Amino acid sequence: MAIIRNVILSGGVGSRLWPLSRKSRPKQYLPIFDGETLFQKTVIRNSGFCDQVMVVGNVDNFELSRKDLKSAGIAKYTEIIEACPRNTAAAIAFAAFSANPSDILFVTPSDHLIESGTDYQLAVARALELAEGGHIVTFGLKPIKAETGFGYIEADGEEVKGFREKPNLETAEQFLKSGNFFWNSGMFCFQAGVYLKELNAFQPEVYAASKVAFEAAEAGKLDFDLSMKIPSISVDYAIMERTKKIKVVPSFFKWSDMGSFESIYDYFISQGYLVDDHGNMQIGEAAHTEFVGLSNCVFISTPEANLILQKDHAQDVKKVYERLEKDRPDLV
After folding, report:
1. Contact of 160 with 245, CB cutoff 8 Å
2. Is pLDDT of 128 > 90?
3. Predicted TM-score of the model (pTM)
4. How far is residue 227's CA from residue 59's CA, in Å, rounded to a whole number?
5. Alpha-carbon distance 46 to 56, whole Å?
């Protein structure tokens, strides 16, 4: 029987959640979700499906992963420590190289919030079944609103008709109305050997350079110079949009990528977090705050930096992060 490995991708920095999320402590390690981190919730949520845990993180945060795993009671796991970000195609390749070809990799981001109920269990069970049959499986989330911050999958049942980039609002509304478009969740399931075969077919340079870097790793840590030779490309572009083995599992569980302060705002509201009469919310430092002449705004306060944000512009925080990364790297 195939071994099922939960491959947790944990290399992101959560730039849209600055200043809460920093390089030194990305969003997946913030203990603001019922006292747990998103990383911990991911590990615990998938422990009932998987035989082993494998974390693919980076040199800046692997100690945070270890701390969260210990807190979650997970003592046995495998880790791959990237020397530098080379995107998801390579990150998953490292996990596949460390597994047996017949092992099933259930690949999940570490920073998503998912309700682990019957709908989730059914979706994962179906994905594992399809992966056993040699398919490359992705999860498509039934959209609940016209969202412009996500990519979409056009589907006919489990057959993928196409992938779409993040749309404008008008296009997103058309997707929602059509009923056969799903949010691209960033979760995947496949046999390790099938993934590597497809990667070698479509991106042989990524395959070869990733293999060299993996085989030269010491104690799970990859070499920087060898890693920099790996082309940086997402698994979506490298394989998902090209393989003939693709299947999608239409999924109906509650999901959020927690990728913006709009998502954080909605989550905190659902948990009874207080807002004022005009929908304004304070996050962070405990000092009393009043909003005058503002509505639907979020004030994020930390000892080093503050952010005042109109909720509808939550996706624009990434631009602030990118500017500060150049001008004030000490703040990110």
Report:
1. no
2. yes
3. 0.91
4. 12
5. 16
- Quick one: tokens of 251? 């999924």
pLDDT band with cut points at 50, 70 and 90 for residue 276: confident
pLDDT at 149 over 90: no
Most confident of 246-250, 255-259, 287-291: 246-250
| Partners of residue 299 on adjacent β-strands | 282, 308
φ and ψ of 118, to 5 deg: -60, -40
Residues carrying CATH 3.90.550.10, the chain? 4-256
Residue 71 in 3-state DSSP? helix
The rounded distance, in Å, linking the Cα atoms of 245 and 159 is 10
**What distance in Å separates the CA atoms of residue 212 and residue 208, rounded to the nearest whole number?**
6
Give the CA radius of gyration of the chain. 20
CB 190 within 8 A of CB 104: yes
Summarised one tens digit per residue, pLDDT across range 53-80 is 999 999 988 899 999 999 888 888 999 9
Q: Alpha helix (H) ranges present in the chain? A: 38-46, 62-71, 87-97, 118-132, 169-178, 192-202, 204-215, 224-228, 235, 261-270, 317-327
43 close to 81: Cβ distance less than 8 angstroms = no
Residue 87: the pLDDT is 95
Helical residues (DSSP H) of 146-282, grouped into ranges: 169-178, 192-202, 204-215, 224-228, 235, 261-270
**Protein fold of 4-256:** Spore Coat Polysaccharide Biosynthesis Protein SpsA; Chain A (3.90.550)
Q: In this structure, what token pair is assigned to residue 282?
A: 């304070």
pLDDT above 80: residue 1: no
Please give the share of the chain, as a percent, with pLDDT higher than 70: 99
- The DSSP element (H or E) to which 251 belongs, if any, is strand 246-251
- Name the one residue in this structure whose structure tokens are 């496949």: 190
End-to-end CA distance of the chain: 45
Tokens, residue 116: 């682990």
Which carries the bigger pLDDT value, residue 214 or residue 15?
214
Q: Do 268 and 235 touch, CB atoms closer than 8 A?
A: no
Q: How far is 234 from 113, CA to CA, in rounded Å? A: 21
